[in-house]
Amino acid sequence: TLNGSSESEPLHDKLLGGLLKPGFDEGSCVSRYTQSLLCRKPSPYKPSPYLVSNLRSYEKLHKRCGPGTKAYKKATKNLDHDHDDDENQVRSSYKACRYVVWVATDYGLGNRMISLVSLFLYALLTERIMLIDQRKDISDLFCEPFPDTSWLLPLDFPLMDHIGSYYKEHSRCYGNMLKNHAINSTTVPPLHLYLHLIHDYRNLDKMFFCEENQAFIKNVPWLFVKSNLYFAPSLWLIPSFQTKLIKLFPQRDTVFHHLSRYLFHPTNQVWGMVTSIYNANLSKVDEVLGLQIRVFSTPSGYLQHVMDQVVSCTQRENLLPKTPRVKAVLVASLHPEYSDELRNVFSERRGEIIEVYQPSGERVQQTDEKLHDQKALAEIYLLSLADKLVTSRRSTFGYVAHGLGGLKPWILYKPDKSAPPDPPCVRALSMEPCFIRAPLRGCQAKTIKTTRFVRRCEDWNPGIKLV
Ligand code: GDP
Questions:
Q1: Is 142 within a domain?
Q2: Domain span including residue 386
Q3: Ligand 1: which residue has its CA nearest to atom 23?
Q4: What is the atom index within ligand 1 of the atom nearest the CA of 400?
Q5: Residue 372 C-alpha to ligand 1 middle, in angstroms?
Q6: Which of 181, 265, 407, 446 could be bridged to 402 by S-S, CB 3.0 to 4.6 A?
Q7: Which atom of ligand 1 is nearest the CA belonging to 293?
Q8: What kind and span of H or E run contains 247?
Q9: Closest C-alpha to 231, from 276, 182, 197
Q10: 98: helix, coil or strand?
Q11: pLDDT by residue (tens digit) across 265-312?
Q12: Is 111 in the pocket of ligand 1 (CB under 6 A)?
């Protein structure tokens, strides 16, 4: 069963193969060092020594430039004045510290987590530190990931009242500035810029992924980003990032797996939910099948089609084999009907014990309701502990679960209005999330066609994923 850390556990496993730094206070964030002590097998994917040393360097940089430091004070001075006499002096202090701020949006938890991982990868590649807009419930969900400092953007940050209203039409938006010819390669870089990396972004916003635009953006000390996308795959297609990426991740499809396990440590409240559900329902069985059922609309008859589809996927792919003997099916869905019905279907199987368990059935998405979001995170974690996982297509909730778990899921195809699809599901090529709105035209068009780094997603053809 799950309990606190155990001294007998090899330190290396406790630190996820060197991903984590020892020395944090354990009690304030129990999940940090006990995640690997769950009954899950240790991850077969080891972080590269280069990734580990980069994380340690990142932590030093964050500690030096983070909130409360001299460098931070200097960097925030006069940031709210556009044209200041001091600008050069302020700019010189940026030489050492540059920042990228994750600005909170209204999108769901999965959307938030995939964009955080992408942005952190960008921060590692560009030697910026990443700060988080804390005005949503992020600190009710996650512990501080970086030692002796904070990833939370202080509430008295000079531009705090502005960053929430940044959008693609804003005068500070990079794509908009390109559109208005307000910047070109000879312009003196501004002190701050807003990057719009949300699914509705325009071709000019997508110029972010071009080499020469990165050369310009590099010299902007403060970047503010709103995103709900897993844009890591397109960072691999920027030539100047490639060499470092290949060294960081010799196994390309482990980017999300390693970085999510490095960044996300559920708070004690969330971890309490995970461990109590795990101990009560999953710890004693031989095998757990996770089922994530996300339906984006519910025309009549749909429930039954999805149900039939799930059953046919588990049968066809032999996901509930005769051995091992005792199995549990963990269902995550907003709709409690699924586990009720699946309990009936699965219990009809001969001589087998299959427990069907659904931790919650919230019915509707209630993002930013603290308890709702905590339950969602707990379920993402529980799914990630499964031995095998079936997920719904195009769901970032499912992407996070399989990425964290290091699992290649079986993805349920989109059900037809009138019948379950045939085949019902497909095995994923890799455990990476899909970048569902990757820029396919523009500067990366040629590379996408020829590269071996990415493939079209199984669940969404215009999307790309690392393989
Ligand atoms: P996506 O919309 O499937 O890409 O995933 P998101 O996580 O971004 O947004 C969906 C939100 O709806 C989640 O964050 C939860 O708040 C809620 N939700 C969706 N499915 C589930 C589920 O299976 N369990 C729980 N507890 N919440 C869910």
A1: yes
A2: 268-433
A3: 333
A4: 7
A5: 9
A6: 407
A7: 23
A8: helix 239-248
A9: 197
A10: coil
A11: 999 999 999 999 999 999 999 999 999 999 887 777 788 889 999 999
A12: yes
> Distance between CA 278 and CA 290 in Å, rounded?
12
- The yes/no answer to whether this complex scores an ipTM above 0.95 is yes
**What's at 138, amino acid-wise?**
I
Q: Is residue 212 part of a domain?
A: yes
Residues 187 and 297 in one domain: no
pLDDT(98) > 50: yes
68 φψ region: left (φ > 0), alpha (ψ -120 to 50), beta (else): left
Rounded Cα–Cα distance for residues 155 and 152 (Å): 9
Mean pLDDT value across the chain: 91
Q: How far is the CA of 295 from the centre of ligand 1 (A)?
A: 10
| CB count in 10 Å sphere of residue 52 | 21
Distance 164 CA to ligand 1 centre (A): 23
Q: Is the CB of 125 under 6 A from ligand 1?
A: no
For residue 397 and ligand 1, the question of a CB distance below 6 A is answered with yes
Model confidence band, residue 325 (pLDDT cutoffs 50, 70, 90) = confident
Q: Output the residue whose Cα is nearest ligand 1's atom 11.
A: 108
Number of domains in the chain: 2
Check pocket membership of 332 for ligand 1, CB cut-off 6 A: yes
HSE at residue 390, side-chain half, CA atoms within 13 A, is 27
The tens digit of pLDDT for each residue in 154-177 reads 999 999 999 999 999 999 999 999
The domain that contains 318 carries what CATH number? 3.40.50.11350
